[in-house]
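Predict the 3D structure for this chain.
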Amino acid sequence: MTPRVLLLLTQPGQRALLRDALEYAGFTAICAEDTLECLLKVSFERPDLVIAEDDLPVLGAPDLAAAIRQRRGGAEVPIILLSRRPQAAGALVEPTGPAMRLSPPLRIGRVVQAARSLLAPVEGPAAPEPRRERVGAAAP
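Done. Predicted structure below.
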């Protein structure tokens, strides 16, 4: 099953560009034009990841993350916030659950790689190699 990524970007051109890059990378991209549509899609379309702008007109980043976490199905959805400020990179402290903030330069490949890293399955310890017995070998 392909991971579903919900995009909340206010610029249609940027939204289309990132949507196409994510779909090329093997994700299913769902787009939202505003915070209300984003929150509705979190509840009803159950994305595996949300990518949103850091400075949205209605809700700021901490409020948006908290609202996503309160939605049905949104408690553990990873969030990537795209910042226009260079100093804002790194893991987020405000919201609970997995979240990350990316700062300029915001390159498409970097955003796709961040999405992959947040959606990568957690690897446990390696399983032991199965014992291989010789078939047809003479017994000593």
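The CA atoms of residues 66 and 80 lie 13 Å apart.
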